[in-house]
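In response to the reviewer comment on reproducibility (Comment 2.3), we provide here a single inverse folding case reported in full, input and output, so that an independent group could reproduce the run without further information from us. The structure tokens appear first.
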């Protein structure tokens, strides 16, 4: 009985605190992707992957736990779509990393939900954290790029940069840092280009391409939102420590 009540409370909290523009953005983005994907005659898998992917990133920006529910569905379907498109790096990234991270992210976020806003806490990295983040991206890209070059990969360091930033961005997202959106913008730009090339060559990936375009727009919007709200969170904590 206690577990059922907890589940009902979680569901209720997911619908609490949404602003009109946030609801409008979520519904509009999902509706546009669905309609255009149907028009372009994309596959059912592609459409569901795209819609759940958009719901995931919008709910992540809102700081809702449901982001990980949508993220799990999207990661599984996107891995399958990438497999058919022969983007094996995307397959491994989603199937071996994003899928298990959905469960870890849900656990971490559930422990840091605000009772007032029913959203996850939003943090900002310290200067030390930013330096470590830059070093991790640079070091990871250099190391992975050399490995891909040895394997004969095409544009190994560009490929490495996209993969490394994606891995780090997911971890930064799980730990609720605003800087995740800077990383996601970089990932989205590269991935939009990748799927645009695939679609131009005749691939059935319109829904996936649209999904990544929405991801990019969402990342810009959420960077502004998290930058503002994390500033407020940091100010509140400083006042608490001062008192």
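Designed residues, in position order:
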């Amino acid at each position: 009985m206690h577990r059922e009540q907890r589940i009902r409370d979680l569901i209720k909290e997911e619908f609490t605190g949404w602003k009109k523009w946030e609801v409008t953005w979520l519904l509009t983005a999902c509706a546009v992707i669905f309609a255009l994907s149907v028009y372009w005659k994309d596959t059912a898998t592609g459409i569901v992957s795209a819609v759940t992917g958009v719901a995931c990133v919008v709910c992540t920006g809102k700081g809702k736990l449901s982001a990980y529910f949508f993220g799990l569905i999207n990661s599984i379907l996107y891995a399958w779509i990438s497999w058919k498109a022969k983007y094996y790096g995307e397959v491994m990234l989603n199937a071996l990393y994003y899928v298990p991270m959905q469960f870890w992210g849900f656990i971490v976020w559930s422990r840091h939900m605000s009772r007032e806003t029913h959203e996850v806490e939003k943090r900002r990295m310290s200067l030390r954290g930013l330096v470590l983040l830059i070093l991790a991206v640079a070091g990871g890209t250099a190391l992975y790029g050399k490995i891909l070059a040895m394997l004969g990969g095409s544009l190994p360091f560009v490929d490495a940069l996209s993969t490394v930033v994606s891995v780090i961005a997911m971890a930064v997202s799980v730990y609720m840092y605003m800087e995740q959106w800077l990383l996601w913008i970089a990932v989205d730009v590269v991935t939009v280009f990748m799927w645009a090339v695939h679609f131009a060559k005749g691939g059935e990936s319109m829904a996936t391409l649209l999904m990544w375009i929405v991801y990019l727009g969402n990342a810009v919007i959420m960077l502004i939102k998290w930058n503002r709200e994390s500033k407020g969170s940091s100010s509140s904590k400083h006042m608490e420590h001062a008192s």
